[in-house]
Design a protein that fits this description.
The protein has a four-stranded parallel beta sheet with strand order 2-1-3-4, sandwiched between helices. The chain has a four-stranded parallel beta sheet with strand order 6-5-7-8, with helices on both faces. Helix 12 crosses helix 24. It is an alpha/beta fold. Among the domains are: 99 residues, Fumarate Reductase Iron-sulfur Protein, Chain B, domain 2; 115 residues, 3-Layer(aba) Sandwich (Rossmann fold). Bound molecules: iron/sulfur cluster (SF4) (2 copies).
Amino acid sequence: MQTRLADFIRDSDAGREADSILRACVHCGFCGATCPTYQLLGDELDSPRGRIYQIKEVLEGVPPTRTTQLHLDRCLTCLSCETTCPSGVRYGRLLEIGREAVDERVERPLRQRFARALLRATVSRRRLFAALVAVGRVLRPLLPPALGAKLLARRDGGPVPDARHERCVILLTSCTQDALLPAIDRAAARVLDRLGVSVIVDGTAGCCGALRAHLSDADGARAAARRNVDAWWPHLERGAQALVMTASGCGLQVRDYGRLLADEPRYAARAVRVSELTLDLSQWLAREWPRLPGPLTRLAPATIAFHAPCTLQHGQQLRGVVEPLLADLGARLAPVRDAHLCCGSAGSYSLLQPALAGALRARKLEALLEGAPEVILSANVGCLAHLEGATSTPVRHWIEWVDERLSLAMR
Ligand code: SF4
Ligand code: SF4
């Protein structure tokens, strides 16, 4: 694609990056076939190619409008288009640059500004968010349905094993996950303990910054990255072997710290190291699985449906890593139609675009339930909360299921 970027961006790092991404796009339109918003709305302006054109125009100096902003807002950042694109177009990064350029030029209506400011101020602040979740659970009947449905019932997390092993990994307790479903990290700690690995949770680490990045708050996302690098670095120096992520959305963000802090001499090298050592929990377990003290008792088969979050299958390009672990413990994996499509959760998307998010969730649940699973498993707290709000079939994090099955198998 030919480009003539405008003066305001041409000679900046972001401009050079956007230019090279735009030039890689050959307009083939293959990406439209796997774009959830294009499938739902049928409007080229809500397809990846259409959004690329709109961003190109803005970066070439055409003034954006509220309509441009709306089409970019409707993007889930699911990155399904990146998986599909034969030319390797880094759409997600281009969208970030495009959204920032549009938001600098187009003022949002007061209601939207308020909602976005509220999300930035609350969701990424662990203690405040936990307090709000506790109050919200009490007042659930009074809340808007889209919000009330996200306040998952608290599950008993069970005990956390003592740190007794020499081998250890750092666990990031996601700010939303810690408040909504602390049972996930406890299950992860128990499974890792069985494999001879202890977990370190550093209380000075906080939100990974993904939510701020999605809300076009690049400074806030970088500040979160700096704080977490500072928190984790001493543990890495003392021998922690990896940073293990139980929420695939957080994992994707932390793996980007190297790029985010590349221009900050004090942080650049450490941030690259942190990104390199960051693994999804499924990657770590797949490596460590042979260390399980066996043999495992044969368990009765259970039919499950696995929903791979976009941040896992498209963002981190991790496909088929969780499923073999589940199968080893007796899971009969129900086939899931259109498994590449987003469930509509997408960070804060389900709160900011409730109609589209609801329509995508209805499609996703229909596909997940076709095989009549006993339970739906996933890998990101946002997807769990979003899906569980609209089905009576239990929805759990896959590590909770693995923890339960391992305790049965190792009796
Ligand atoms: S990120 Fe997802 S919603 Fe956005 S353009 Fe790509 S496929 Fe469509
Ligand atoms: S982003 Fe990729 S798939 Fe989509 S139009 Fe451009 S080159 Fe084709």
